[in-house]
Amino acid sequence: ETLFGKNNPGGKMPVTLYYPSFINETDFTDMSMTSGEGRTYRYYKGKPMYPFGFGLSYTTFSLGWSGTMETASPFVVSLTSKEPLKLSASVQNTGSVDGDEVVMVFVVPDSALGSLEEFTSVTLPKRQLVKFQRTTIPVGEQREVGFELELDAFKTVNKNGVVAARPGNYQLIV
Length: 174
Description:
5% helix; mainly beta
């Protein structure tokens, strides 16, 4: 049924798959996630063969923050409160088959945050998955998927090894 499009499974890659040259370019005795080209979707600087979150479907989806439906423009938030941040993403099935989509929310730290004294020697992740949710959407329909981000979603390890939330701006990408 799946091969002929009667069943439309949905899923995303839970890992990053690299090109074979990655083995020759990487020192595997160095366990640092940030050395060289970096490792995992959070630090890898190259173009992976299949990135974290890659998935195939018999249909297509349009994703964006509620009210914008723009995937290219990230939503910018300023970390000023310890209260959970509530937001909603719009997901529309733009294809010709009913389908499942895994909506993923990534936090991208503002590059200026690296200049704060306690984070100066820390390599900030390019992005970090903080929430995800699967939703089933019939052809042509649009759904709102709600997320609540706690303060922990914005935390990282500082140069003293302490997990802390940095004040300032963050981009949220769906």
